[in-house]
Amino acid sequence: MLLQIRPIAVRTAVGSFFTIGIVGSLAGLSPSTCCKRAVLGAVIVYVVTSAAVRVITAILTQAIIADRVNKEYPGDNEG
C-alpha cells in the first residue's frame, strides 16, 4: 500500500507550527512575529515533507516492482 502524502505532511506541519510558536514565545518575540514565523515554518515543513514522502513512495514502489520482476523472471536480470 502506498503512503498517504497529505496526512503525513499536514501532521508534521501542524507539529512544527506549534513548536516554532512555543519556541518563539519563550524567546520573547512579539505574538505577531511569532505567528508569522510559525506559519512560514509550517509551510516550508509541509512542502519538504510532501517532497520527501513522494521520494520515499517512489523508491518503495520501484523496489516492489523490481522484486516482483525478479520473482517472475529470475534469470533475466543477472549480470
Overall form: rod-shaped
Number of strands: 0
N/C terminus separation: 31 Å
Write the element-wise H/E pattern from the N-terminal end onward.
HH
Secondary structure layout:
Blueprint: H1 5-26, H2 31-72
Helix pairs in contact: 1-2
Task: Please explain how this structure is put together.
By secondary structure, the chain is mostly helical. It starts with a helix and ends in a 7-residue tail after the last helix. It has one domain (5-72). The chain is 81% helix and 0% strand. Helix 1 (5-26) runs antiparallel to helix 2. The radius of gyration is 20 Å and the shape is rod-shaped.
Which descriptors would you attach to this protein?
single chain; 79 residues; mainly alpha; 0% strand; rod-shaped
How would you summarize what this structure contains?
The chain has 79 residues and is mainly α. The chain has helices at 5-26, 31-72.
